[in-house]
From TrEMBL:
Species of origin: Aphanomyces invadans
InterPro entries found in the cross-reference section: AMPK_C, KA1/Ssp2_C, KA1_dom, Kinase-like_dom_sf, Prot_kinase_dom, Protein_kinase_ATP_BS, Ser/Thr_kinase_AS
GO MF term set: ATP binding; protein serine kinase activity; protein serine/threonine kinase activity
Pfam families from the UniProt entry: AdenylateSensor, Pkinase
Top EC class for this record: transferase
Cellular component, GO, one term: cytoplasm
UniProt-annotated stretches for the region Disordered: 527-555
Domain (KA1) ranges: 470-518
Residues at which ATP binds: 42
Domain Protein kinase: 13-265
GO biological process terms, semicolon-separated: intracellular signal transduction
Record-stated family: Belongs to the protein kinase superfamily. CAMK Ser/Thr protein kinase family. SNF1 subfamily.
Protein name: non-specific serine/threonine protein kinase
């Protein structure tokens, strides 16, 4: 069965219209025939995945989405495998992109912006709880359901819903990138998402971006220097929160827990978003007896018992019974959240009993940073367009086209520019891996070669670590190393934390990079300068995983 010849029925799903076409296949609207709920089925053609060397990336992204069970993160219900295609059954989101919403309305009211921001921060916090850093947060990757609630998407695959966007899904606009990312510095992860959330909050409240320039070097200069202005129409609380998120020094940048305590964020916060991610996770794993009872009334072939439903939940099995349970549960919870949000809006019309505390008391020593002498953002999209030299970063476009076409040609070109995260090399891949093994040997790592260009490493802390830092830090640190081809003759070594303390992991990554640079420096004294270097920014645009059966490197 080919993705170009999709059947009318797939398992328990009746397929309908095509929602979009991407590089790997189509996205179809479908109905779950047992529950009657709509889903979106993304069809990934195996031959196309293999031809682009994207099998490993697809596997990792599916595994990531399977972990997510949050009201404001796109849901993956199940994956159906066939010899020719992979069918991803996803939550159907009918409202389009937040980007288009901002384009159509201009700057949003504080309450509407806060509604979206509450949900974004909650979803990002949940990702971080699962040790997942999005690294490409922007309005184009934030979808809206039919009730204008945010769903965080595009963890590397979601943009296939729009034609021609798939190969750019790992490529983010530099306008949203944190200074440490564009500078090629090491970072733990959550702080770069906080910066991107700050840019998004600015866009919600102002209808334009804080950092923009036709010249990428000038844009990076503005980002590194924190050169932006705050419009006069912003409230005092908003004028306090945004600069705390856009602090250039990541060590001084506000954290997600601190954002949650800020007066601007606390205003009208719905009850279901007041819980920490641990509580959200615990609640998601509980058996909802009302939903179980509902499932027992469904017309499953052969029937269904309560034990089957409960067992599939407790074992986290992706059975047809579990999928039906999840669909019914999500539908029920969505209605509850809508009622809560309505109650919050009614409560907002009542006079407040207490004034919010002084925001400067929340995070001592982190007052607003001084603004550069760039022009003040205008109060309307039209004024913003004039002040940005006849254009605005968030411009209106045909709603049915990919989001990149909503921008003018200059901004669209900026979206196509590649920016990378990791350590980059122009040397032959076999030589790169040889230097990697040398660095690991010097640093006393153990490693296992999973594939010619994929290595799993382990570093065991010395016994001296245990008495001073506690037994938890004496556990081994596991790091995944993967070499990708990002373009002709340019390769990218990517790092992944597979287990262990985050601080120690970052320290070890720094030591690996330092050792690689030392090894490259020794070679450079005898050879032309084509050595390994740290590039300025983000993800590979075309991360082709390398496969060469003739190379067999062992540590």
């Amino acid at each position: 069965m080919s993705s170009h010849d999709v059947p009318v029925q797939l398992g328990y799903y009746r397929l309908g219209e095509t929602l979009g076409t991407g590089s790997f296949g189509k996205v179809k609207l479908a109905e779950h025939m047992i529950t009657g709920h709509k889903v979106a089925i993304k069809i990934l053609n195996r031959n196309k995945i293999r031809s682009l060397d994207m099998s490993e990336k697809v596997r990792r992204e599916i595994g990531l989405l399977r972990k997510m069970q949050h009201p404001h993160i796109i849901r993956l219900y199940e994956v159906i495998d066939t010899p020719t295609d992979i069918f991803m059954v996803l939550e159907y989101v009918a409202g389009g992109e937040l980007f288009d919403y901002i384009v159509s309305k201009g700057r949003l009211s504080p309450d509407e912006a806060r509604h979206f921001f509450h949900q974004i921060v909650s979803g990002v916090e949940y990702c971080h709880f699962h040790r997942v850093v999005h690294r490409d947060l922007k309005p184009e990757n934030l979808l809206l359901d039919g009730d204008n609630n945010v769903k965080i998407a595009d963890f590397g695959l979601s943009n296939t819903m729009k034609d021609g966007e798939f190969l750019r899904t790992s490529c983010g606009s530099p306008n949203y990138a944190a200074p440490e990312v564009i500078s090629g510095n090491l970072y733990a992860g959550p702080e770069v998402d906080v910066w991107s959330c700050g840019v998004i909050l600015y866009a919600l409240l102002c209808g334009a971006l804080p950092f923009d320039d036709e010249s990428i070097p000038n844009l990076f200069k503005k980002i590194r220097g924190g050169m932006y202005s705050l419009p006069s129409h912003l409230s005092d609380d908003a004028r306090d929160l945004i600069p705390r998120m856009l602090v250039v020094d990541p060590m001084k940048r506000i954290t997600i827990p601190e954002i949650r305590q800020h007066p601007w964020f606390q205003t009208n916060l719905p009850p279901y978003l007041q819980h920490p991610p641990e509580a959200v996770e615990h609640e998601a794993r509980k058996v909802d007896e009302e939903v179980v009872a509902k499932c027992l009334t469904l017309q499953f072939p052969g029937g269904m018992s309560r034990d089957q439903v409960v067992q599939s939940i407790e074992r986290d099995e992706r059975t047809p019974v579990r999928v039906a349970y999840d669909l019914v549960l999500d539908h029920k919870n969505a209605k509850i959240r809508i009622d809560e949000l309505r109650n919050v809006k009614r409560h907002d019309n009542q006079p407040k009993t207490f004034s919010p505390p002084d925001p400067t008391l929340l995070v001592p020593g982190r007052g607003p940073i001084p603004m550069a002498a760039s022009p003040m953002i205008a109060a309307s999209p039209g004024d913003a367009m004039r002040q940005f030299g006849g254009r605005t970063p968030l411009t209106r476009g045909p709603p049915a086209m990919p989001s990149v076409q909503h921008m003018n040609d200059a901004l669209a070109e900026k979206k196509r520019r590649r920016w990378y995260l990791g350590i980059q090399s122009k040397k032959e891949p076999a030589h790169v891996m040889s230097e990697v093994y040398k660095a690991l040997l010097v640093l006393h790592f153990e490693w296992k070669v999973l594939a010619p260009y994929r290595v799993k490493c382990r570093w065991q802390p010395p016994l001296a670590f245990a008495p001073s830092t506690g037994p938890s830090h004496a556990k081994p640190i596991k790091i995944g190393l993967q070499l990708y081809k990002v373009q002709q003759h340019i390769y990218l070594l990517d790092f992944e934390n597979l287990g262990g303390d985050a601080f120690t992991y970052m320290n070890l990554c720094a030591r690996i990079i330092t050792e690689l640079k030392t090894l490259s420096g020794a070679v450079r004294s005898m050879a032309p300068p084509t050595d390994m270097h740290a590039p300025p920014v983000g993800h590979p645009s075309h991360p082709h995983q390398l496969h060469n059966p003739h190379i067999n490197l062992h540590g």
